Amino acid sequence: MKHLLKLMDLSKEEILDLLDLADKLKAERKAGIPHPILAGKTLGMIFEKSSTRTRVSFETGMYQLGGHALFLSSRDLQIGRGEPVEDTARVLSRYLDGIMIRTFAQEEVEALAEYGSIPIINGLTDFCHPCQVLADLMTIREHKGKLEGLNMCYIGDGNNMANSLIVGGLKVGMHVSIACPKDYQPDQKVLDLAAQYPGQFFMTDKPLEAAKDADAIFTDVWASMGQEDEKAIREKAFAGYQVNQELLDVAHAGCMVQHCLPAHRGEEITADVFEAHANEIFDEAENRLHAQKAVLVACMK
Ligand code: CP
Ligand code: NVA
Questions:
Q1: Is the distance from CB of 14 to CB of 195 less than 8 angstroms?
Q2: Which protein residues are within 6 Å of ligand 2, measured from CB?
Q3: Tens digits of per-residue pLDDT, 122-140?
Q4: What distance in Å separates the CA atoms of residue 211 and residue 208, rounded to the nearest whole number?
Q5: Of 8, 127, 159, 210, whose Cβ has the fewest other Cβ atoms within 10 Å?
Q6: CA distance 291 to 120
Q7: Does the beta carbon of 260 sit less than 6 angstroms from any atom of ligand 1?
Q8: Is 151 in contact with 252 (CB distance < 8 Å)?
């Protein structure tokens, strides 16, 4: 695998290979077996948005793989003062062995890959969050023992998380149901891809319909990073798009609840549902580390 720009670029086999490698790296880590597979390699991590999990898991992951990670805030890079991404890509390619970037436009990530000569990993854009969804799939498989045929449900904004969950879920053979307000649907490119999976995808604006028979229910914040100005209008639009006990009552028994975090209790998820499923949610957060180490190895070895 050269890059991880979006899950759309990966085949089912590539996704499952990454999950298998992530499971292996996790088991080795738990057994105290070192795996310095990326010794001597350096990852640059460009952040144009905030992060807790992505930053810490990538930096720690590189260290555990024997390599080194550099935190590069766009506030301090010349890119933040207008240096073109094309030039940044060509310069950083001369120093680094890989770049992880969190930014706004998907086009910026694609341009880094086009102009640079090293692997580029997408650590979240407005369009998608592939690393998160690899960890999500890993967590479901860990808890349920399989992915194929399970029902994934997503409630809320048709945002980066919705886009990646739909693509990832469909590719590994899950049924995906999503409930979002009519004005906040997933990206058209994702809906076009979903149309190639007849019988596997269902979209509605009614959360109870989407949650029926779910094996794993996902949600995400109503206002993503960069949408802070829309908070008030979004609170109105998303009222009712909440993961709560009423939704879980129509899901399959033992339905998991997943949240990429950070979570806003009382908005997209109730505090009681969050706490009842905290174990699964923090397994999901932990698996960012293991899934991303698999991505780093696959791209940078
Ligand atoms: N879920 C996620 O990407 O978390 P951070 O924003 O903290 O990196
Ligand atoms: N949709 C959220 C995900 C955060 C991990 C955002 O983009 O802010």
A1: no
A2: 124, 159-161, 220-221, 224-225, 260
A3: 999 999 999 999 999 999 9
A4: 5
A5: 8
A6: 16
A7: yes
A8: yes
